[in-house]
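A further point concerns the way the authors explain their paired sequence and structure data. Nothing conveys this as quickly as seeing an actual entry. An entry of this sort, consisting of the sequence and the corresponding backbone structure tokens, reads as follows:
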Amino acid sequence: MKKQLFALCAASMLIAGCSSSGSNSVEVRARKAANLSIWKTRQEIRFAGKPFEVAVAKDKAFSFVAPKGSGFPYSPAEVEGVARAVTGCKAEFGAGILAFVGGFSKTSDLREIQSKYSGFNYWRVDLKC
């Protein structure tokens, strides 16, 4: 039942996104370009013995974190730790849609979730400095 409800919600969001106006797509492209620009500033860091990449927005409002390489599990708590180690700020994992998926927690294996999406680049971590 949960899977069917999740699929229905995802399909509804997809349809709603496809029917948006042209000006919205310009905004989306601009946001994606800005995010890509931030991601290009990423640096490598080892956290808990694992390699990660992290990029921080100029205003330190958020950061993007991704594993460097594959083959190891990592959690939202580790992603927050990476952002905290680089910025010194309080970090909160941007769970987004994952917050609605049953069984998701700060210790969930994000590698398993990431592997299901071919367009994965990074996870967002909101910062409070």
Observations:
- The two ends are 41 Å apart (CA to CA).
- Confidence is low (pLDDT under 50) at residues 4-9.
